[in-house]
Design goal:
The chain is of the alpha+beta class and 344 residues long. The chain is 34% helix and 22% strand. α8 crosses α10. The relative contact order is 0.15. Bound molecules: iron/sulfur cluster (2 copies). One iron/sulfur cluster (SF4) binds next to α9.
Length: 344
């Protein structure tokens, strides 16, 4: 294991930037975003959550599959491939790292989504443990350890005051550590002791958060929850179908494929979609979900019941709390969990 003195951060970023496209959390007009090292914005390693989650790197909001144009009454196609440029993300939070595991389960199973895989393969992620907690955080409910080492990260950092504890996790992480060997320093016994103390402190801090006491395991079984229409109607009554909850969610992964055509050319692209929209699942024969109650039920059933049923008990929520902050009518997943538990 290594440590990175904070007064060497800039040198580390410059070194990474020589080899990779480097992205970091930057505050830009009051909004935290992952931005390129060279883009405007102030690097911010204190605020926890970016507005747009990590999924945008591996599953972009909009992505062109192919371009087409007509020439002499013939159509020519050009398939678009993912750039091979390698990138490094510095400072992703553990909840977003966990979301990669959930997305991998979807996009990397057969048949593999080649676009997603290409984005995953060209990226290296350096996570940063959360030293503080926001009121909407409840990641521990879903087994995310805010100071732990998650399997989808390449390097895991913990802020230890004057330095970051640098834990290389994957082969990519080891290669990056080798590249940075003149900047990183070997840890000593006292560093290990401090690191373990800080990890314990973070774990205790998150355990004390009341949201982390949600009894997720007390949600009823699939049939029981699905048929509880009284609760779903009550919950869905306020929903505006704006889709914000799905767009900010690091684990939501539904998309649409569309063709855009101009006079002699056009393109086929995919873009994020939302199960909260009335035309989601609209097919030639009609729409199997005709009410907002059914759509709201689908979103939360998927996260809390269907996904864990199909993925060894892993939930499709990482407790990041973004939907709590963004829903304009305060219809968030914590309220839903409480209702489903209370009504069991
Ligand atoms: S459902 Fe809400 S809390 Fe859960 S991962 Fe999505 S945005 Fe975060
Ligand atoms: S953010 Fe709230 S109002 Fe908008 S679709 Fe989601 S639950 Fe409905």
């Amino acid at each position: 294991m290594k440590k990175l003195f904070k007064n060497n951060l800039d040198n580390l970023w410059k070194k990474i930037d020589e080899e990779y496209n480097l992205f970091l959390p930057k505050m830009d007009k009051g909004t935290l975003k992952f931005k390129n090292f060279h883009e405007d914005g102030e690097i911010d390693l204190k605020t926890l959550k970016t507005a747009v989650p990590l999924k945008n790197f591996v599953f972009p909001q909009s992505e062109t599959y192919l371009k087409f144009k007509t020439e002499n009454k013939k159509i020519k196609f050009k398939v678009e491939s993912v750039s091979e440029d390698k990138y490094v993300i510095f400072g992703a939070r553990p909840c977003d790292i966990k979301s990669l595991e959930i997305l991998d389960n979807i996009f990397l199973r057969e048949p593999v989504d080649t676009y997603y895989k290409a984005h995953r393969d060209r990226g290296i992620v350096i996570s940063l443990a959360c030293n503080n907690i926001e009121s909407s955080c409840f990641c521990e409910v879903f087994g995310v350890e805010p100071a732990g080492v998650l399997k989808s990260t390449d390097v895991a950092l913990v802020d230890c005051g004057d330095f970051y504890y640098w834990n290389e996790v994957s082969e990519n992480g080891k290669n990056l550590t080798e590249l940075l060997k003149d900047i990183l320093v070997d840890v000593k016994l006292e560093d290990e002791i401090l690191y373990n103390e800080i990890k314990e402190r973070i774990t205790k801090l998150f355990a004390e958060n009341t949201l982390n006491t949600l009894q997720i395991d007390k949600i009823g079984d699939l049939k029981e929850v699905f048929e509880n229409e009284k609760v779903w109607k009550e919950l869905a009554r306020r929903c505006l179908a704006c889709g914000s909850c799905t767009y900010v969610c690091p684990t939501c992964h539904c998309y649409d494929v569309k063709d855009y055509a101009g006079n002699n050319s056009g393109e086929r692209f995919r873009c994020w979609d939302s199960c909260m929209y009335s035309d989601f699942t609209l097919m030639a024969h009609g729409n199997p979900r005709t009410t907002q109650m059914q759509r709201v039920r689908q979103r939360f059933m998927h996260k809390l019941v269907y996904y864990p049923t199909n993925h060894d008990g892993v939930y499709s929520c990482v407790g990041c709390g973004r939907c709590i902050e963004k829903c304009p009518v305060h219809l968030d997943i914590v309220k839903v969990i409480k209702k489903l538990v209370v009504n069991k």
